[in-house]
Amino acid sequence: MENDILYNLKKASRSNIHVRDVLGSIDVPDEVKGFFAFDQKVSYKRRFNSILAIQVTELVDGVFIGCAVNHTVTYGTSFWNFFNTFAEVSRGVNRISRTPDYCRDSV
User: Fold this and answer.
1) Residue 100 lies in a domain
2) For residue 105, is it within any domain?
3) Is the N or the C terminus of the chain less surrounded, counting Cβ atoms within 10 Å?
4) Which residues 6+ apart lie within 8 Å of 19 measured at CB?
């Protein structure tokens, strides 16, 4: 999906890769780069790329969810804070561990 939409959802399958192959070493295997839809993209091409991309890759014994965001919209720390908060809410926690910070002093 290389068009001017806001988000890109993609499903992929890698029937030759196990979860242990992804998590089993200190170095990230080269195959994992393909689990992210924005691999090899640069932010100034927003005109042709979506703002958010999520790719769910089915492995032999699990799934890998690769998320990427265009840096013209947000930066890495805020994205990970959002993603971790989303995970906490999905797990059903009563109180999130990091409340959103709307202060613009750190930018």
Assistant:
1) no
2) no
3) C
4) 59, 60, 61, 62, 64
Look up residue 65 and give its two tokens.
């969810």
Structural domain boundaries, residue 59? 7-71
| DSSP string over 23-52 | HSSSSPPHHHHTTSTTTT--GGGGGGS-SE
Give pTM, 2 decimals: 0.64
Look at residue 96 and tell me if it is in a domain. Answer: no
pLDDT, one tens digit for every residue, the chain (107 residues): 444 567 778 898 998 999 988 887 788 788 888 888 766 666 555 455 677 888 899 999 999 988 887 776 777 777 788 888 888 988 899 988 888 776 766 55
